[in-house]
Amino acid sequence: MKNIAILVPKGAILGSIEGPRLVFSEVNALLQRMGKPPLFDIQLVGLTHETPVCGGLYSVYTPLLTTDLATTPDLVVIPAVDGDPAQALEANRAFLPWITEQYHAGAEVASLCMGAFLLAATGLIDGRHCTTHWAAAHDFRRMFPAVELVENLVITDEHGIYSSGGAFSYLNLVLYLVEKYAGREMAVVCAKVFQIDIERVSQSAFIMFNGQKEHGDEPIKKAQTYIEDHYQDKITVEQLADMLALGRRNLERRFKKATSNSVVEYIQRVKIEAAKNSLESSRENVNEVMYQVGYTDPKAFRSTFKRLTGLSPKQYRTKYNRDLAAAF
C-alpha cells in the first residue's frame, strides 16, 4: 500500500487537489474490480481542518493535519496555488519544514504546476531541475535562481522529486506516477478513462512569449520595444548597442539580467511568436510566413521554430490554424 498525502494549501486551485485524488482513486477502483487489493491510501492533509481555496470561493475539509501523520507518507503531492506566488508562499510557509522533513525521512515529493514555488522554497531542489507553468517562469527564476528551471518540459523526475508543467498538464505527472507505482498497463487504462494524452513530454507548443518588461532598466526596455517593432528586419547586437550608446558586453549582460534571455534569444523568440500568430490565423504558406518575420534560410527558420515550440511550422499550423480546424 502506497500512502499518498495530498496537501491542501491556502489558496490552492481546487482541480489540482481533486484531480490527483480522482486518478489515484480510480486505480484503486480498477484493482478492486480485478479482485485485487487497493494500491493507494489517499489522504488530504492541511494546516487547518478547513482551508479556503480558489480565492475563497470554496473550502476544503482536511481530516488530517500535518501534525497528525504518525508515519512518513510514500508520496507528498503539492497542488498548484493561485494568485501572486510570493503571497501564496507566505500563506503556506508552515508547510515547508514539514515537506522537507518528510522527504528526508524517505517520502517522494511531487509539485503540480504553481506548486513548484512551494517546492522550491524548501530548498530541496537547489541545483536541480524543475518545471512549472510557462507563464510563471520569470517570477520563478527571480525568486529561486538556484533552481534549474526547464519550463519547456511537462515532467521532471530527479532524486525522488517530481514537478509538472502548467495547468492541466499535472495530469501527465499523475499518470507518470501511476505508471511508476502500478505499471504501464494501469497508466494506459487511466489515460483512456480520463482522456489524457499520456505521451506529452513538452509544453513548448503552448508557450506564448511576452517579453519580460517588469524591470527598471529603461535602455533595455527601449531595446525590447525596438526588437518587437522591427522583428521583420535583420537586427544585430552591435546595432542595438550603438543605438543605446552601450558597449556590447554591457548590453548583453544587462539584457540577460532583465529579461532572462540573451539578445539573440529574444530576437528569435519575438520572430517565432509572430510566425506562430501568422500560422494560426492566415492562409500564407510556411515560406511566406518565414519571410514575413525576417528569416531567409528555411533550415534555420524550421530549426529555431521546432526548438522553441516542439513542433515544425507545418505541424503547428495543422494543430492551431482556425481555418484548417473549421474544415474538419
Outline the fold blueprint:
Elements lengths: L1 E6 L6 H20 L6 E7 L3 E4 L4 E4 L2 E2 L9 E4 L6 H7 L3 H10 L3 E4 L4 H6 L7 E2 L6 H7 L4 E2 L5 E4 L2 E4 L5 H13 L1 H11 L23 H12 L7 H8 L3 H12 L3 H19 L4 H7 L5 H12 L3 H8 L1 H5 L2
Parallel strand pairs: 1-2, 1-6, 2-5, 6-7, 7-11, 8-9
Antiparallel strand pairs: 3-4, 10-11
Pfam families: DJ-1_PfpI (PF01965), HTH_18 (PF12833)
Protein name: Helix-turn-helix domain-containing protein
Organism: Hymenobacter nitidus
Task: Describe the protein in words.
- Helices cover 48% and strands 13% of the residues.
- The strands form three sheets. A seven-stranded mixed β-sheet has the order 5-2-1-6-7-11-10, with helices on both faces. It has a two-stranded antiparallel sheet with strand order 3-4. The protein has a two-stranded parallel sheet with strand order 8-9.
- It folds into two domains: 2-206, Rossmann fold, CATH 3.40.50.880; 218-326, Arc Repressor Mutant, subunit A, CATH 1.10.10.60.
- The protein is built from 15 helices and eleven strands.
- The model has no long low-confidence stretch (mean pLDDT 93).
- The protein is of the alpha/beta class and 328 residues long.
- Helix 1 packs parallel to helix 6, helix 6 (170-182) runs antiparallel to helix 7 (184-194) and helix 11 (263-281) packs across helix 14 (313-320).
- The N and C termini lie far apart (46 Å).
- The chain has helices at residues 14-33, 85-91, 95-104, 116-121, 137-143, 170-182, 184-194, 218-229, 237-244, 248-259, 263-281, 286-292, 298-309, 313-320, 322-326; strands spanning 2-7, 40-46, 50-53, 58-61, 64-65, 75-78, 108-111, 129-130, 148-149, 155-158, 161-164.
- Pfam families: DJ-1_PfpI (PF01965), HTH_18 (PF12833).
- Residues 221-319 form the HTH araC/xylS-type domain.
- This is Helix-turn-helix domain-containing protein.
- It comes from Hymenobacter nitidus.
- Keywords: DNA-binding, Transcription, Transcription regulation.
